[in-house]
Amino acid sequence: MEKNTKDEIREVKGFLPKAIKFADEINEDFAEGIAEFYQAIWDERENGLSMKEKHILVFTVACASNNVESASKILERLKKFGATRTEIYDAMMMAAWTGGIQNFTNVSSELVDKINKLGFE
Questions:
Q1: For residues 93 and 7, what is the distance between their CA atoms, to the nearest angstrom?
Q2: Organism's domain of life (predicted)?
Q3: If you ran DSSP here, which 8-state letter would residue 119 be given?
Q4: Which letter, b or e, does each residue of 107-120 get, where b requires 16 or more Cβ atoms within 10 Å of its Cβ?
């Protein structure tokens, strides 16, 4: 049986992202299209952003958007890709700059605990 993009995403991530799962309940072609979009974003390209850099960017956006749950999950990916504590703290400061100090206040207590728990250097 030939693998489709959804199967490839599931193998890379270890799970099927919710957006793809929900789309699959609506229409298989729609889900495959979302999976291809997902794959295009996260593929590493020559002279493009590294996986670590991409995850730092989405972590910053999650923090700036006050999305603690997403930011917390991304921290686990950042650990896998070798991000440092300093890089993460820089991202959190950029999030405070773009999202406002209140969002920083809301996310920082939970995220600093998670950063410590994951053992970032």
A1: 36
A2: Archaea
A3: T
A4: bbeebeebbeebeb
Whether residues 37 and 89 fall in one domain: no
Q: What is the pTM for the complete model shown?
A: 0.84
User: Do 35 and 72 have their domain in common?
Assistant: no
What total of structural domains would you count in the chain? 2
Q: The tokens of 53 are what?
A: 């850099």
Residue 54, both tokens: 């991409």
The CA distance from 47 to 70, in Å, is 27
Q: For 103-117, how does the pLDDT look when each residue is reduced to its tens digit (9 = 90+)?
A: 889 899 899 999 999
66 and 36 part of one domain:
no
Judge if 37 and 56 occupy the same domain: no
Model confidence over 8-67: pLDDT tens digits?
Answer: 887 767 678 899 999 999 999 999 999 999 888 888 899 999 999 999 999 999 999 999
Per-residue pLDDT, 15: 77
| Structural domain harbouring 79 | 51-118
